[in-house]
């Protein structure tokens, strides 16, 4: 961690204790490159939605301007970083939430080795449409997957429809088009940007329910989140996918075409 600020300043000991002991709030994570972000407006919209859902608080008209200032202040002279912006309860429970900006090292340019994923039918996030602080379930699912010899976990609901990974959305390819699961889940910023970019590039895609039984029909699977747009998935349970399939290339090229928004 390079820096963390609360409402634009270093938190004192009492504030640090409050941040560490109250697990309530919501956040968004973004990759900053040369002090610019892909999909910045989508990140701000996510935060505004989270404030209404978890705090019953509507953003002020100048809130985006304030967020830009808080992010730039926390970055200091840093130009490339991973930035997490969180809204947490303030000292006054009836007042507006506080803003925490955490600055860490940027994600690697290249994705990690292809993932070996385990289906976890018990893993389901609370309030799945929001990116919130209740993350114990997803980290437990990931820990159990690793203990069983896998890298990560994929949520499948009681309806046997594929949902999402622990901290990522999943995309599939059937040789003709990109398929995104439609289910109770987080619509990640990277996923939305990819869908827009694929459309702009004339690459066919659809978002629809994906039954677990259909995993056999796909040629490739890729995990996407704020850290990568093309993390290949080598296998889901005992079903293997070919490395170097067209899907990762399609998503990588689409994401590279997305413009940056200056902070």
TrEMBL record:
SUPFAM superfamilies: D-aminoacid aminotransferase-like PLP-dependent enzymes (SSF56752)
Pfam families according to UniProt: Aminotran_4 (PF01063)
Keywords, alphabetical: Aminotransferase, Transferase
Any one GO MF annotation of this record: transaminase activity
InterPro entries per record: Aminotrans_IV, Aminotransferase-like, BCAT-like_C, BCAT-like_N
Top-level taxon: Bacteria
Lipoprotein among keywords: no
NCBIfam families to which the protein is assigned, alphabetical: PRK09266.1 (NF006734)
UniProt protein name: Aminotransferase class IV
Source species: Paractinoplanes aksuensis
């Amino acid at each position: 961690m390079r820096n963390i600020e609360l409402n634009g300043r270093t938190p004192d000991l009492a504030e640090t204790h409050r941040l560490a002991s109250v697990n309530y709030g919501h956040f968004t994570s973004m990759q900053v490159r040369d002090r610019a972000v892909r999909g910045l407006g989508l990140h701000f919209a996510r935060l505004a939605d989270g404030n209404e859902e978890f705090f019953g608080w509507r953003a002020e008209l100048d809130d985006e301007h304030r967020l830009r200032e808080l992010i730039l202040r926390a970055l200091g002279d840093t130009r490339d970083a991973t930035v997490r912006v969180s809204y947490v309860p303030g000292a006054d429970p009836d007042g507006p939430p506080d803003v925490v900006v955490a600055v860490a090292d940027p994600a690697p340019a290249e994705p990690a080795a292809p993932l070996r994923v385990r289906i976890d039918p018990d893993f389901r996030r609370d309030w799945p449409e929001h990116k919130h602080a209740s993350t114990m379930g997803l980290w437990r699912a990931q820990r159990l997957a690793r203990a069983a010899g896998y890298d990560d976990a994929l949520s499948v609901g009681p309806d046997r429809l594929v949902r999402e990974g622990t901290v990522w959305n999943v995309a599939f390819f059937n040789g003709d088009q990109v398929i995104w699961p439609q289910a109770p889940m987080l619509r990640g910023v990277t996923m939305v940007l990819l869908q827009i970019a694929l459309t702009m590039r004339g690459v066919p895609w659809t978002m629809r329910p994906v039954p677990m039984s259909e995993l056999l029909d796909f040629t490739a699977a890729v995990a996407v989140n704020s850290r990568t747009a093309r993390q290949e998935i080598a296998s889901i349970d005992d079903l293997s996918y070919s490395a170097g399939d067209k899907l990762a290339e399609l998503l990588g090229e689409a994401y590279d075409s997305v413009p940056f928004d200056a902070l």
